[in-house]
């Protein structure tokens, strides 16, 4: 998601290579390259079906709102919801 959110258009192979290299740098590669490729392909299809990524031919491009699908964004929303609930409980 971070790779796509930079506004560039990628073919899947180039996109996967960039993601895989980034994960290797972080020592976050486990399960083998083929399994990661399958999981990445499933993720890109899910993002395409949700309307966050546009597929044109064999290339993929992020659309507006792609940041909202990231786990960091979801955690931030969850944190703010918990904080709001705590503040509401204190006021009552």
Structural notes for this entry:
- By secondary structure, this protein is mainly alpha-helical.
- It has a domain at 4-66: Arc Repressor Mutant, subunit A.
- The chain contains three helices and three strands; from the N terminus they run βααββα.
- The protein has helices at 12-25, 33-49, 71-91, and strands at residues 9-11, 53-56, 59-62.
- A three-stranded antiparallel sheet has the order 1-3-2.
- The chain is extended, with a radius of gyration of 17 Å.
- The mean pLDDT is 80.
Rg of Cα set: 17 Å
Name the shape in a single word: extended
Order of helices and strands: EHHEEH
Q: What structural class is derived from the secondary structure elements?
A: mainly alpha
Strand proportion, as a percent range, falls in 5-15%
Mean pLDDT: 80
Strands side by side in the biggest sheet: 1-3-2
CATH class group of the domain at 4-66: Mainly Alpha
- Report how far the terminal alpha carbons are from each other: 40 Å
Question: Which CATH architecture of the domain at 4-66?
Answer: Orthogonal Bundle
Number of strands: 3
Short description:
The chain is mainly alpha-helical.
SSE layout and pairings?
Layout: E1 9-11, H1 12-25, H2 33-49, E2 53-56, E3 59-62, H3 71-91
Antiparallel strand pairs: 1-3, 2-3
Key words describing this protein structure:
mainly alpha, 3 helices, 92 residues, three-stranded antiparallel sheet, single chain, 57% helix, Arc Repressor Mutant, subunit A
